[in-house]
Specification:
By secondary structure, this protein is mainly alpha-helical. It is 93% helix and 0% strand. The termini are far apart.
Length: 55
């Protein structure tokens, strides 16, 4: 993928996030809470897997 397209997509994503947080702060907060919960579940699963390997 050309560098220009990557930069364009990145700036578009950043602009969307700013717009989303400015005009729908409750929705943005719920989205980030959901992403955080998913990342924590992944980390917990990885930790459980590594613990199982060690025992």
């Amino acid at each position: 993928m050309p560098v220009f397209v990557k930069k364009l997509l990145l700036w578009g994503f950043v602009a969307f996030l700013i717009y989303f947080m400015a005009f729908r702060p409750d929705g943005a907060a719920q989205m980030f809470k959901g992403i955080g919960a998913a990342l924590m579940a992944i980390a917990q699963g990885l930790g459980d897997f590594l613990t199982s390997l060690m025992t």
